[in-house]
Design a protein that fits this description.
The chain has 2 domains: about 375 residues, Sodium/glucose cotransporter; about 80 residues, no CATH class. Helix content is about 75%, strand content about 0%. The chain contains 22 helices and no strands. α5 packs antiparallel against α13 and α10 packs across α14.
């Protein structure tokens, strides 16, 4: 199949627009607070757009199509529905997050529990962000490589450079504005592809007639209630402490905007959940009835199912919009992950341990340099990765969440929550999660490593807090001048 220049033009225009937004945002940045939390001026609509776009990434587009095409069928929609459920839970915590007036999660740990907790949290937050960024680079590069017919590695380099440049230019304000555009491209670009795919397959009735009935069950042999519960637990723990998500709550203009933005983000996820799922089922039906040869889909793995479906069934303009939408999904997550890693290093490592007297501009410059380094490391991971997008994504989620969840949430409510309990929770929760993942241990039929990690974290945090309670008996945060 030859190069489609209409598709290329649409996507190139989109990429240029993202860079221009990054440049515009650069002109509006005057302080480190502007860069990290957008000056705390996000209303509910902007917050909802950036929060939804951040979490709808490669796993929620290419990954869900891959799962629907594979064993999960219609149940693949749970991967996104459980995100919406999580945003519903976070609605009750959003105002507390906003009231803390911090810029990063490790800053909260440091000011609530002391320097040791802040340092440990910084490390366990930064490392997974490399994996999360790489996941989005992989998904974007998949689309670029299919669209241009270029080598996957060249596409990785292109995507990495574009995303890193516009994220570094404007910080969270740039990320928010690009996300606001991208979330509409994500939903519209994917949605507009469905009628054309259905026309090719002969309508939804033909999809139903072609595939086994089990493919249309929301719960089946491949995704059951245990898997769904595991996803909810994973998202709740990860989104609650993930810098790329929580920074949106920090950036809300007030408590009300934080709550409303969280609810709207959940609504966007519910609307979007079935779009990539349906596209995956249509692709499977087209392969099953012989319209698209299976060897084309499997040549580079099922993660290429969606772009190949588009190339075989849709007109050029629709392909361009679809590809722009998918790239939007992945880039909107990658830029947030980059900013999260840079913010943590600049705000919680450089400012605290390397140069305590650093000015706001010096911290911002260090944050940008860190983003460049993380972007390069994520690019290397993307170049080497051959595994499942969702597997890499879930491992990154769980690694940073297991030990931090209980100290972070309970720190806002429980006056006696202590530094000793927090350090034990962070170390033991993270260790158990890695141990279970490496050794492939299943506990009570649950395969997700975050479950035992959270259980051990819970016990360590509460037992040691009762033994060594916070002597201040307060949830108030220490001032930055104390560090």
């Amino acid at each position: 199949m030859g190069i489609n220049y209409t598709v290329i033009v649409i996507v190139v225009v989109y990429l240029i627009a993202m860079l221009l937004i990054g440049w515009y945002s650069y002109t509006k940045i005057s302080s480190n607070e502007d860069f990290m939390v957008a000056g705390r001026r996000l209303g509910p609509v902007l917050m909802a757009g950036t929060l939804a776009a951040t979490e709808i990434g490669g796993g929620s587009s290419l990954g869900v199509v891959e799962k629907a095409y594979g064993d999960w069928g219609m149940g693949a929609s749970w991967y996104i529905i459980t995100m919406a459920i999580t945003f519903g839970f976070l609605t009750f915590l959003g105002s507390k997050f906003r009231q803390s007036m911090v810029k990063t999660v490790p800053e909260y740990f440091r000011r609530r529990y002391g320097r040791s907790s802040g340092a440990i949290t910084s490390v366990i937050m930064i490392i997974p962000l490399i994996g999360l960024t790489a996941t989005q680079f992989i998904a974007s590069s998949t689309i670029i490589s299919v669209m241009l017919g270029v080598d996957y590695k060249i596409a990785v380099i292109l995507v990495s450079v574009v995303v890193t440049i516009y994220a570094v230019m404007g910080g969270l304000w740039s990320v928010t504005l690009t996300d606001f555009v991208q979330v509409f491209l994500i939903v519209f670009g994917m949605m507009i592809a469905i009628p054309f795919a259905l026309k090719t397959v002969g309508g939804w009735d033909n999809v139903v007639a072609t595939l086994p009935k089990e493919k249309f069950y929301m719960v089946n042999s491949s995704i059951n209630s245990k898997t769904i519960i595991s996803l909810i637990v994973m998202y709740l723990a990860s989104f609650t402490v993930g810098q790329e998500a929580v920074s949106r709550y920090y950036a809300a203009r007030d408590d009300k905007a934080a709550v409303q933005g969280s609810l709207l983000a959940g609504l966007i996820n519910i609307i979007y959940a079935f779009i990539p799922t349906v596209l995956g089922l249509i692709t499977l039906a087209l392969v099953t009835n012989g319209t698209i040869p299976k060897d084309i889909i499997m040549k580079d793995g099922p993660k290429y199912a969606l772009p190949l479906l588009a190339m075989h069934t849709m007109p050029s303009v629709v392909i361009g919009l679809l590809f722009a939408g998918i790239i939007s999904a992945t880039m909107s997550s990658a830029d947030s992950d980059l900013l999260g890693a840079g913010s943590i290093f600049g705000n919680d490592i450089y400012k605290i341990y390397i140069k305590p007297d650093a000015t706001s501009s010096e911290v911002m410059r260090t944050t940008k340099i860190t983003m460049l380094v993380i972007g390069f490391l994520a690019m290397l991971v993307a170049l080497m990765n051959k595994g499942s997008l969702i597997k890499l994504l879930t491992l990154s989620f769980t690694l940073r969440a297991a030990g931090a969840f209980f100290p972070y949430v309970m720190g806002h409510y429980w006056k006696k929550a202590s530094a000793v309990g927090t350090v034990a929770s962070l170390l033991l929760g993270s260790f158990i999660t890695l141990y279970v993942e490496i050794n492939k241990i299943t506990i009570f039929g649950l395969k997700e490593p975050i479950i035992p990690g959270l259980a051990v974290s819970f016990l360590a945090f509460f037992i040691l807090t009762f033994l060594f309670p916070n002597k201040k008996n307060s949830t108030e945060l220490a001032g930055e001048e104390e560090f």
